[in-house]
Amino acid sequence: MLIASFNINGIKARLPRLKEWLEETRPAVACLQEIKTMDEGFPAEEFEAIGYHAIWHGQKAFNGVAILADGVAPKEIRRGLGIDGPKDGEGEQARYLEAEVNGVRICNLYLPNGNPHPGPKFDYKLAWMDRLRARMREVWAEEVPAVVLGDFNVIPEDKDVWSVSAMASDALMQPESRDAYRRLLGDGWTDAIDTLNPRGGVWTYWDYQAGAWQRDHGFRIDHVLLSPELADRMVGAGVDKEHRGREKASDHAPVWVELRG
Questions:
Q1: What residue numbers bound the domain in which 204 lies?
Q2: Fewest C-beta atoms under 10 Å: which of 31, 110, 229, 245?
Q3: Cα-flanking dihedrals φ and ψ of residue 258, to 5°?
Q4: From CA 127, how far away is CA 82, in angstroms rounded?
């Protein structure tokens, strides 16, 4: 069973690249972030035409998450974590969607970036991570096979970035962000890509600016966390890096985990 995550950076702008990736790799489940469309604008029929059923949680021009499943309809469990955005009266942002697919709990997330740091956006990032951890504990207590994946906007360790000094002041690499991520792992979740690449040097994001892709100036912020039931079934995990180099690509590459059974 192949489960993947892809920050698509605008589903309408990247639809040809997204469909291309789906048909070439054929994941059983594909979690999308930054779809950047309201619910009524989501192109569900495009995915149905190639055999995927979808649920989605959209937001105008920003954020937004979706779960696609090959040949089956995802059973929605929850949308949102019940935490408002950093501005008064803003309401909840479209950043979390949870479903069950083929007996596996899929928790798809787009964690806040947190810049500029310090400030209310960084405070919101940390509060959101606290709320995520609480939800992950609830899922854990259900004792179901579970995967928590998506764009975490956290560079876990120095080995996960091309230049520590270049990102030192960024919210993605602050001690508080890293500590919150470590607490998630400390609850018993397995970082699939890190487990199979303990020396680091694996990137999932390359900025559009300053020739970052051409110079391989990237970092790892897209993660796949597995419950013990799924960690025992892991046979592979990686990044579809080649898709980042295609025409009109997202600034992220897809990440994936392959499970037995």
A1: 2-259
A2: 245
A3: -110, 130
A4: 11
| Inter-residue contact 152 to 111 (CB < 8 Å) | yes
**CATH code of the domain covering residue 208:** 3.60.10.10
Q: What's the number of domains the chain is made of?
A: 1
- In which residue are the tokens 């900025």 written? 207
pLDDT tens-digit profile of 33-52?
999 999 999 999 999 999 99
Which positions are catalytic? Answer: 110, 151
Q: Are 109 and 151 in contact (CB under 8 A)?
A: yes
pTM above 0.90, yes or no: yes
Among 184, 106, 200, which residue's Cα sits nearest to residue 145? 106
Tokens 């990237």 appear where? 218
Looking at residue 109, what is its pLDDT?
98
Per DSSP bridges, beta strands 52-57 and 146-151 are unpaired
